[in-house]
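Chapter review: from sequence to fold.
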Amino acid sequence: MYRRMLVTVDGTRRSEAVIPPAIDLARHTGCSIKLLTVVIPEEHRQGALWSEEGSLRVSASGVDSGMAQADAYVSHLARIMREQRVSAEPVVRKGRPGAQIIEAVSELGIDLIAMATRSPRGLERLVFGSVAEYVLQEARIPVLLITAK
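The token string follows.
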């Protein structure tokens, strides 16, 4: 059925809501997990350090430390998944989250994307858009969306 699942997280507990269902699905299908977070360089950022739907945001001079911080974060989560007998590897990329997710799908041979999303809120949705919506429109493979609470 599925061989490689891309699970996206952005440093928030809300994004981590996807982890338990992804672990269950991986156990049932035997697929491996690539756990992805995206570092957003300054030229792509707006707002706080961690986006609500995106990933780690860093200044141009902080990209290297941001990449290291992001790697530590997804490596920790991948370790937790492996402790639950699921094959999981961390992946850290930099750029616009939606585009990086779609590129990772192609480069890593992914056949399922799993991500948490939240209900869009008015003006924020109009101004910032939605990574989940972008992925749904651009992905040519199944996308599992988990509503975070």
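Two observations follow directly from the output. Residues 46-54 have pLDDT under 50 and may be disordered. The chain has five helices and six strands.
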